């Protein structure tokens, strides 16, 4: 291949590479920005599986947002708010890169051929590791991403890295559909209300879409997180299957009726997620927005 031809191929590939990088950076920035809220959400979602952590032996330690944030600060310091964020970014970068790129490719394919390319990509093991790291408090079992991966494989076998994948697969498709559809609907609504195209429109539309999708998908997300905590440290399995997990979550919810709604987190998360690519894509595509999602 001639050098000029190779150079031309690299030039042609650059815009596509920018789309991928923009999506990945947006995912990392958005999750890092709301990491303290994400940490509290995970702690609240999995605490019913750790009754030995209850200070009074009966009631969960993390029942309210501000009290939980204060507890993390007092016990772990500022760094505690970002515990597990490295695993989050490792998971988010390829996940959101693919999501943004696939969304753009799907739009172009639909415009050209009326068809939709089908691609499947999963980074579930990193999601499990992220949940395990974020669920730790003062007593650490996993010291980092590599250590967590090694110990999970040692204690639970390779299947431990795929805890809750069934629930994840069942929730991914509707979550993506709701996110993208809601984003376009809110974008159209705010445009009709007089909001000009730009970052502000993307911020409002993304925040509302993320909050709406999270409200709808929160029950499945709760079950997924609890399934990911099954078998920690080689302990006996709390749930034998998803049916048991759903039943336990329902009974616990009816009994307690407390928790941190994930949409409190995903509102600001989607503010950043949808706005960040908008700025970057304006340089790449002359202002065209490629929305993404953050389940």
UniProtKB/TrEMBL annotation:
PROSITE patterns in the cross-refs: SOLCAR
GO cellular component term, pick one: membrane
Coiled coil ranges: none
Entry keyword Protein transport: no
A biological process from GO: transmembrane transport
Predominant place of localization: membrane
Keyword Metal-binding part of the UniProt annotation: no
Ranges of the Solcar repeats in the UniProt entry: 106-189
Superkingdom classification of source: Eukaryota
A Pfam family annotated for this UniProt entry: Mito_carr
Membrane topology according to the record: Multi-pass membrane protein
Location within or outside the cell: Membrane
Keyword line: Membrane, Repeat, Transmembrane, Transmembrane helix, Transport
TM annotation in the entry: 160-180, 200-220
Family (UniProt): Belongs to the mitochondrial carrier (TC 2.A.29) family.
Protein name: Mitochondrial carrier protein
UniProt lineage: Eukaryota, Sar, Alveolata, Dinophyceae, Suessiales
């Amino acid at each position: 291949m001639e050098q000029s031809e190779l150079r031309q191929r690299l030039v042609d590939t650059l815009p596509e590479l920018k789309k991928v990088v923009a999506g990945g950076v947006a995912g990392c920035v958005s999750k890092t920005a709301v990491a303290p809220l994400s940490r509290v959400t995970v702690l609240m979602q999995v605490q019913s599986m750790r009754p030995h952590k209850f200070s009074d032996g009966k009631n969960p330690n993390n029942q309210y947002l501000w009290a939980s944030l204060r507890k993390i600060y007092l016990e772990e310091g500022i760094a505690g708010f970002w515990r597990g964020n490295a695993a989050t970014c490792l998971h988010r970068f390829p996940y959101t890169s693919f999501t943004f790129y696939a969304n753009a490719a799907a739009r172009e394919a639909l415009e050209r051929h009326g068809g939709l390319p089908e691609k499947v990509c999963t980074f579930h093991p990193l999601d499990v590791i992220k949940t395990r790291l974020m669920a730790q408090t003062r007593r650490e079992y996993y010291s980092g991403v590599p250590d967590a991966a090694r110990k999970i494989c040692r204690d639970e076998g390779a299947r431990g890295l795929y805890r809750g994948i069934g629930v994840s697969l069942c929730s991914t498709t509707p979550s993506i559909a709701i996110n993208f559809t809601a984003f376009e609907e809110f974008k159209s609504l705010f445009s009709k209300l007089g909001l000009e195209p730009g970052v502000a429109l993307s911020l409002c539309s993304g925040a509302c879409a993320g909050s709406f999708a999270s409200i709808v998908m929160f029950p499945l997300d709760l079950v997924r997180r609890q399934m990911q905590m099954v078998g920690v440290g080689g302990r006996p399995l709390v749930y034998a299957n998803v049916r048991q997990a759903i039943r336990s979550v329902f009974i616990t919810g009816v009994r307690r009726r407390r928790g941190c709604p994930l949409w409190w987190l995903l509102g600001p998360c989607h503010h950043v997620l949808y706005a960040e690519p908008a700025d970057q894509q304006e340089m790449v595509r002359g202002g065209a927005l490629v929305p993404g999602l953050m389940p």
